[in-house]
Amino acid sequence: MHDIAIIGAGPAGLTAAAYGLRSQLDIILIARSMGGKVTYPFRLRDAEVADPVWGADLVYQFEEMVARSDMEMVDANVIEIRRLENGTFEIDLEDGRVVATRTIILNTGSRAKRMYVKGELDYRGRGVSFSAVSHAPFFQGRDVAVVGGGQRAIIAALELLPLANQVYLIAPRLDGLARLPAAKEALEHPRMSVFQGWEIQEVIGDGEMADGKFQPGYVTGLNLVGINGEIRSLPVEGVFVQHELMPHNDIARGLVEMDHYGFIRVNERCETSLPGFFAAGDVTTVHAEQVVIAIGEGGKAGLSAWEYVATHRMAQ
Ligand SMILES: Cc1cc2nc3c(=O)[nH]c(=O)nc-3n(C[C@H](O)[C@H](O)[C@H](O)COP(=O)(O)OP(=O)(O)OC[C@H]3O[C@@H](n4cnc5c(N)ncnc54)[C@H](O)[C@@H]3O)c2cc1C
Q1: Is the pLDDT score of 118 beyond 60?
Q2: In which band, very low, low, confident or very high, does the pLDDT at 175 lie, cut at 50, 70 and 90?
C-alpha cells in the first residue's frame, strides 16, 4: 500500500512529488506522459521570439530531482479510481495493473477546446493562441480576434481592449454576459466589433515553401461565415481561441464535487470533498491556467497529503 499516489506529472504533479521526497513516505507518481511540458514558444512578426512561461525552470528542477530519486514512476493512463470502505483507494491503470494507496493527489490538467478549422494548427504559436492570460501582452497596438461566446472569451476581450488596436469578438452565440458588469461597455467599445452568429471558417497566414514543405509564417487574417452563408475576411495578427477549458476529470467523476464546468472543487489546502483525495492545478476550480499557479497548488497538495497520512496512518 502506497502512502500517496500522485496522478499527473505536469507542473502541479511534479511539485507535489518534489515535496513528497522530503516526507520520506512511500509515493508513486503515475502519468500518461512523464515530465512537465512548459515550453510554449510564441512568435509574432517584428517581435522577439517569446517563451513567456514563468516557473518553467523550477518545474525542470523538480522533474530532475524526482527522476534522480527512488520514487516509483509509472508511465500509464489511469482509467478508474475506487474508494474502499476503509477509506483507502484503488487505482486501475490501462495496462491492467491496480495500485493501492492511502491518499491521492490528482493533477490531470485541462485542455483547450479547438476550433477545428483550416490553418488553426499551422499558425498555433504564430498568432493563434489558446491562452489570452499568457499571450495578450504581445499584441500591443495590433488587431486581434477573440473566438468564443462565454465568460472566458468576454474576459479575454476586456483584457485585450486596452492593449490591442482593434478587437473582433466572434461568437456563434453569447452566453453568460449578464454576470459580467463590464461586458456591455466592452461590447459597445469603439475599438470592439462583435460578430455574433458568425463562425470561423479559416485562419489565414503567410509562409513559404522550403525543401518541398510549407513553412508557416504568421497569421494575417481570418475568414468568417455568417448564418446566412455570407463570408467575411478580417485582417488580424492574433486569434485567441477562448472557449471554456475542458478539465481532465473523467477518473474523478462521482467521487468528488465539481463545479458547473467540471473543475474539481478544492479548498485552500487542496482538499476535495472526499477525505484523502487532494487535487491541484488546472483540473481544479483554482483561478487561472498558469504554470506558477500550478506549482504553488501542487506544493500545497503535497504538504496536505503528507499531513493527512501522518495523522491518519494509525486508523487505516
Ligand atoms: C497552448 C497553451 C499555452 C500555454 N501557455 C502558457 C504560458 O505561456 N505560460 C503559463 O504559465 N502557462 C501556460 N499554459 C498553461 C499551463 O500549461 C498550465 O497551467 C499548466 O501546465 C497546468 O499544470 P498541471 O500540472 O495542472 O497540468 P498539466 O501540465 O496539463 O499536466 C497534466 C498531467 O496529467 C497527466 N494525465 C492527464 N490525465 C491522465 C490520466 N487519466 N492518467 C494518467 N495521467 C494523466 C498528463 O499526462 C500530464 O502529465 C498554456 C497552456 C496551453 C494549453
Answers
A1: yes
A2: low
Q: By percentage, how much of the chain surpasses pLDDT 70?
A: 96
CA of 290 to the centre of ligand 1 (A): 9
The CATH topology of domain 128-241 is FAD/NAD(P)-binding domain (3.50.50)
* Residue 37 CA to ligand 1 centre (angstroms): 7
pTM for the whole structure: 0.92
Q: Name the residue at shortest CA distance from atom 33 of ligand 1.
A: 8
Is residue 302 a contact partner of residue 16, using CB atoms and an 8 Å limit? Answer: yes
The Cα 130–Cα 144 span in angstroms is: 13
Same-fold call for 2-111+245-315 versus 128-241 = yes
Rg of the chain taking only CA atoms, in angstroms: 22
CATH 3.50.50.60 fits 2-111+245-315, yes or no: yes
- Hey, where are the domains in the chain? 2-111+245-315, 128-241
Among the atoms of ligand 1, which is closest to the Cα of residue 42? 8
